[in-house]
Amino acid sequence: MRTKTNRSASFKRIALILPLALALIAPSNPGFAAAKKKSDLQILGNARAANARSEFLLQLKNASTRTPNLEYHIDPTINPALLTGIKVDTALSADFWASLRPIDQKVVVYIASTENFKFLVDEITPNSTPEGLFGDWLGHKYLQAQMEPHGFFGGGAPAFDKNDNPVFMVYAPNGQGLGSGFWTQTTSHEFVHVTQRYLMGGNMSPMLGWVIEGQADYIGANFATRNNTEAFASYWIQLIFSMARPDASPKVLGWNQKQFIDWFKSKEVTLAPEKAGDIPVENYVVGAMASQYLYGTYGYKKVNTYYDKLGKIMPDCGDGDSTTNVKCNPSRQKAFKEAFGVSMAEFYPKVAAHIVTEIAWAKKNSSTYQSDLLKIAPSPWSNAKPQPPYVAPANLGPISKYGNPTLEGRRGEPGSTQFVDPYPPNIAAPGRSCLTPNDKAILYGATMTCVGTTTAAKWTLDPGQVVGPAPKP
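The structure assignment produced for this chain is given below.
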């Protein structure tokens, strides 16, 4: 999940204008050959990038055509053009991921203009669980929307509502340009997180930061430009150069292969969400290039297998702190090797070389394409037809909340002392890491204290306290 504030590339676009005289002469010249359409390989510059694009388009072509189960909460002031794009991409995303996540599981989608962000606060708050509102993240976004009403856009996927429905939201100013790839990838980006959460049993801790956001950014980039590879190339260049922003890590654009290898190794050490803070921009973009490498080298089936295997190791990763959940990283390594046939250590030099190549390609082609994607091709949903209303199949049985259900209240492997807690992710709960000793917290009416040192503190129930059941909707 990432908030955007009109993130644009910092480099200039140079329009290439054909001289008028040549334009007039060419049609009447028998020896003039019409320009041939470039292949994906010619546009993207290397076979792996072209193959990854081909894999996406094939997956899209073979996607389900059923109408998914979607419930919309729509701000009546939203720009109809924005609304159309969001609804088309939501339905298509659900169909795209239908082989991994049942499209009969309802997804609740909240849509609003940034100028009327309060609509999201008013609609989401009463339908959310306490953990869904943890940290007042929605309130913080509301304040930012008030400060930047005409430039603030993005989305979020705050887990499940009170009725156990997956939830995500999308917002943008009504004047948002439809030619911005950073905007047009937002809906499909957020739906990737809906799918990840389904596979992960509701707990994202098995995934490294670049694995979470890299997949969402790569799939989002393709969705936003699905009807034109040159549009993809334009946005891909813009995405890579977004790391040149002052609040990002501009030095990354000049790294060599070894520096990227070291970066990947450093990212294996993960912390619980309350310690980790926001995921930095390079996790999104370097992760997107890593996802491109995985899709282009191994294909969608093996990448899907990888995420499914990660979902099964949640008990080993707990709250995501790999320094205290000692089984987490070995299990991540095992899932990777089983899915792709190479170890992560063997993968790093190869993906690092690919990333160096992609950055060099982006620098070389930075002035080739317009940054406004609508100047390259029409928006991918310009001629989309609305799907018929959702109808549940007559023989539809119960749908599991998760693809890999959590082992609530159980222990891990035989002989293991690691307890898999039954509490929702990303909140204070007994046995989970905490930041400041002696801090207090409450869970379902039970009080807890942060006990231990600053490097190994855990939330501990106060004497006589028992965690009661979660509040009923």
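Interim note for the steering committee: The CA atoms of residues 241 and 249 lie 10 Å apart. The longest helix spans residues 344-364.
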